[in-house]
Amino acid sequence: MFTGIVNAVGNVEHVKLLQAGQRLSIHAGGLDLSDVAIGDSIAVNGVCLTVVACTPPHFETDVSEATLAVTCGLSVGAGVNLEKALRLSDRLGGHLVSGHVDGVGVVTAFEPRGESWLLRIAAPGDLPRYIARKGSVTVNGVSLTVNDVRRDEFEANVIPHTRAVTTFSRLTAGDAVNLEVDLLARYAERAREWQGG
Question: Where does residue 84 rank: exposed (0-12), middle (13-18), buried (19+ CB within 10 A)?
Answer without folding.
Answer: buried
